[in-house]
């Protein structure tokens, strides 16, 4: 293939990509539906919305703009659902649990549910803009945070007597913390060295010209910071033993870890893979509202004055000739409400326990779409040792211990005290830890966290923990679809079931994200308005 | 080598690394010098400090704590030196230039000099803590920012008629913007695919066991997001053509760019290498003071009330029997001051033009240590289109055009207007652009920036530019040592020249950084106090 052929071919290949638009999401804007003839506005048609989380409130907000008469029924005494910020005074009692009240100092908090806004979730960002919610950066990928691979000491004995197929013995890199920058740069160094070697030796039969190979090797030299012989011998990118300073102090670079040590130390486990910008939804830049994620639900709530009935737990959802009838508990007594339409945003584990006339296919979806088990603990410390001692300002440390992750706050830098998230775990770990009494959860978080931060021992003050699968009115983290449930259960949630529309993150491909709740709301509003018009 | 030998060997290899302390810089703390017998305190000894930048002010602040009587002579009408924030109303006239006054709206600014604090610059962070300067995150590595490789159209003709050794023809990936995440993930994908192939084929003669190779290939599969056949076919990490959404909208992933296209498109130029966390001093997390970098000099200045003489340009520096005599211009008239010691923090290009008794070796250093040429322009726009349209919240776009970099503000997200840094360039580019009249600099910044952001055309409001090598009392960005100047010139700056001590970033291995200025100040204070004691 000649160069000209090559250019022609690849130009054609990229022809579909416009010069500007390729990966730019359409700028999200205030929602604006096309006029529906004379019936442009809702003309006061009644809509009952189940749940005052983001999906429910965005639905009411947008339907309200169009002239619909909305009422939200919310089982809790607060709005926001799984968008929930824990501050001093926050109380909760889990299903089967004992009451907890947070003792955090004023100004300290953590986001128990939604905690970050990807820069490409234009809809969430648009609502922040429209509702005047100030944002700041959520520091997701911090090269200074730690990795900690726990290996029980017993592993040594077992492997010493075992064969080559045994699990790795306790490695020199186990049971000690390592900066993410060390791991990243060592692995990049060794892998680029290996590839440069293969390319130098002409071992790879690629459709690459000699010039291409030279350019690729140049890239690798920089990517891995290889020396002139194309070898990785460590680099200042991974840090200094003694920092450069004034006078005759050039700084001293540390030797890298060994490749086989890294390979055999358990750092090939997925918990250590999912670091940095390798996950689309977690790529920099991530944002958060100033002062806590609940600034978003509070902003919606402020625009829905008088429309939300709190402490109103729905018990029945019935279809009638004119629309729907909803029965709910209000102040210990049953109450009911009729409306032309219903938008049901209840999480499926809640919906499945409500007496209702919803169709069998929706009921099956509620029964068979699993929700993730997940938990967090906020730990308040007397001082921000992670900042003062370790230079960690936000970001996430990762470990194969039960605590899974430690999140450092991306706000209040250098304040005297601080709250970090001492665990954020999923699945079996979340189930096991969530099954413990709160005092034992705290004990576990402190004991394991101390392996990474010995300062835990002297600086701890108090804690607040939660297991989302045990939180009333949520009973799970978010919907977890696999290919089979997407195919079999998901479609039922997308169509109106008579006068009942479904919304919430579980009705989207953005499960777990606020953007899912918000886009599902717009979809429901659009569908209702189209039907009316 | 047996596994046990291996473990023993590598354990010994890491034995020097303590479990906790390895890469942790000693926590910086308030400066505290050991007592010097009865003369612990300066007892009012007079010290004249030349320059009220960070080095000079930190010297005065610390000597003041010890009881010395310090006076700072500052040529400008402000403190901070190269720590300088441009706001509405800021005026400057460059050497040989015409006056400029910034028209930025209230709340908008950019940091003309120092603009970021690495998380490992503990000393800078410690002074922020000690002086009560609130910090926020500076977003340095933004995967959503752009790369733009400019290739002139004439390249096509030349290369079409040329041989294989000619520079690349205009490539399908030239003259269009690309998200950093696309470049990162495509290059990672292709390089890990190549290495996985070499490893799969057993082509690399490494000291790796079969198990090690399996683990490494697992790592590569994740690092590059390879498919089950270990091929890179693109991934959602690089973005979506249509985003996932509500209902039947799973999102559509874009095909990756071709490896040869990337290799031949000029993306192997260093400007595109230096992206993300590949430079130690630019690794996440970076910080900035809330409201502008000059919060740091202002905090020092507030603690030095009455000690700084502004508009006091030094013209002579003399050694006397009792110490030093400094002659300076004050209100158009010469004045002079005597002191026991002098701490000279003047940049070398300024020092070399002062009549003085300093030694020949210091004079030679002042003559031969080059300073970088560098410039920035702040551009105010009517709206933050980079946020609204492109989802870019802080971070840096990079290009091989003269503008070199575009910096998006890491503050004031979602405000109606904003100031971005339209170029930040160095060396020849900075010299060429800096030589232009300010109106032409602005024209150049807009014309080139428009290639990346077409919104420049309609949203621009006003600009303020500067070339540090043309700024009076600085005359350069920072000292640029190579091995030869470190060996030949640097040592002269580290020793006292009689009663004269030198401080400033040029007396450190942290050139260009505020931490350099601050650590040099502590070094000077320590030396003077030791001599007195």
Explain the overall architecture.
The structure is a homodimer of 533-residue chains. With 533 residues, chain A is α/β, with parallel strands linked by helices. The termini of chain A are far apart. Chain A folds into three domains: 171 residues, FAD/NAD(P)-binding domain; 166 residues, Polyamine Oxidase, Chain A, domain 2 (Alpha-Beta Complex), CATH 3.90.660.10; 91 residues, Up-down Bundle (de novo design (two linked rop proteins)). The first copy, chain A, is globular, with a radius of gyration of 27 Å. In chain A, a hairpin with a 2-residue loop joins strand 16 and strand 17. The longest helix of chain A has 21 residues. In chain A, 31% of the residues lie in helices and 20% in strands. Chain A has a five-stranded parallel beta sheet, with helices on one face. Chain A has a four-stranded mixed beta sheet with strand order 10-9-21-22. Chains A, B: GO terms for molecular function: tryptophan 2-monooxygenase activity.
CATH topology name of the largest domain in chain A, in short, is: FAD/NAD(P)-binding domain
Helix content of chain A: 25-40%
Structural class of chain A: alpha/beta
Query: What shape does the CA trace of chain A take?
Result: globular
User: Architecture of the largest domain in chain A, CATH level 2?
Assistant: 3-Layer(bba) Sandwich
> What is the chains' assembly state?
homodimer
Q: Using DSSP, what is the number of strands of chain A?
A: 25
Distance between the termini of chain A: 58 Å
Unreliable stretches of chain A: 1-27, 155-166
Helical region count of chain A? 17
The largest sheet of chain A is: 5 strands, parallel
Q: What is the CA-atom radius of gyration of chain A, in angstroms?
A: 27 Å
CATH class of the largest domain in chain A: Alpha Beta
GO biological process, one term (chains A, B): auxin biosynthetic process
Family (chains A, B): Belongs to the tryptophan 2-monooxygenase family.
Pathway (chains A, B): Plant hormone metabolism; auxin biosynthesis
GO molecular function (chains A, B): tryptophan 2-monooxygenase activity
């Amino acid at each position: 293939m000649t160069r000209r052929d090559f250019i022609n071919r690849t130009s054609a290949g990229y022809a579909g990509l416009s010069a500007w638009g390729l990966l730019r999401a359409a700028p999200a804007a205030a929602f604006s539906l096309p006029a529906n003839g004379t019936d442009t506005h809702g003309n006061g048609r009644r809509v009952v919305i189940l749940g005052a989380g983001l999906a429910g409130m965005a639905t009411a907000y947008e339907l309200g703009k169009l002239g619909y008469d909305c009422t939200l029924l919310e089982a809790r005494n607060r709005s926001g659902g799984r968008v929930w910020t824990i501050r001093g005074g926050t109380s909760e009692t889990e299903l089967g649990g004992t009451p907890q009240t947070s003792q955090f100092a004023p100004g300290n908090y953590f986001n128990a549910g939604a905690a970050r806004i990807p820069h490409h979730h234009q809809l969430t960002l648009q609502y922040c803009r429209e509702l005047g919610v100030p944002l700041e950066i959520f520091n997701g990928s911090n090269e200074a945070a730690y990795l900690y691979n726990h290996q029980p000491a017993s592993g040594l004995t077992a492997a010493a007597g075992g064969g080559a197929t045994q699990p790795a013995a306790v490695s020199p890199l186990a049971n000690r913390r390592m900066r993410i920058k060390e791991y990243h740069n060592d692995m990049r160094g060794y892998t680029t060295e290996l590839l440069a070697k293969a390319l130098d030796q002409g071992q790879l039969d690629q459709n690459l010209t000699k010039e291409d190979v030279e350019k690729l090797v140049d890239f690798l030299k920089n990517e891995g910071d290889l020396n002139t012989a194309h070898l990785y011998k460590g680099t200042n990118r991974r840090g200094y033993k003694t920092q450069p300073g004034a006078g005759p102090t050039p700084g001293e670079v540390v030797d890298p870890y060994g490749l086989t040590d890294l390979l055999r130390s358990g750092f090939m486990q997925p918990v250590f893979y999912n670091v940095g910008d390798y996950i689309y939804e977690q790529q920099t830049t991530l944002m958060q509202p100033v002062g806590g994620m609940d600034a978003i639900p509070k902003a919606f709530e402020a625009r829905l004055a008088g429309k939300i009935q709190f402490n109103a737990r729905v018990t029945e959802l019935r279809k009638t000739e004119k629309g729907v009838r909803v029965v709910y508990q209000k102040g210990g007594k049953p109450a009911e409400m009729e409306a032309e339409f219903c938008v049901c945003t209840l999480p499926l584990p809640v919906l499945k326990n409500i007496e209702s006339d919803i169709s069998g296919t929706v009921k099956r979806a509620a029964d068979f779409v699993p929700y993730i088990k997940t938990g967090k603990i906020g730990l308040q410390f007397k001082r921000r040792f992670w900042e003062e001692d370790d230079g960690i300002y936000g970001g996430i440390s990762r470990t194969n211990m039960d605590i899974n992750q430690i999140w450092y706050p991306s706000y209040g830098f250098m304040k005297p005290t601080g709250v970090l998230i001492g665990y954020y775990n999923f699945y079996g770990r979340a189930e096991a830890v969530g099954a413990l009494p709160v005092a034992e959860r705290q004990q576990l978080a402190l004991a394991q966290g101390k392996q990474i931060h010995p300062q835990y021992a002297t600086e701890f003050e108090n804690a607040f923990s939660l297991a989302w699968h045990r939180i009333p009115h949520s009973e799970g983290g978010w919907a977890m679809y696999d290919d089979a449930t997407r195919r079999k259960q998901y479609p039922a949630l997308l169509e109106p079931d008579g006068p009942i529309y479904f919304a919430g993150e579980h009705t989207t491909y953005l499960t777990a994200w606020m953007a899912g709740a918000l886009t599902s709301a717009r979809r429901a509003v659009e569908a209702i308005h189209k039907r009316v018009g």
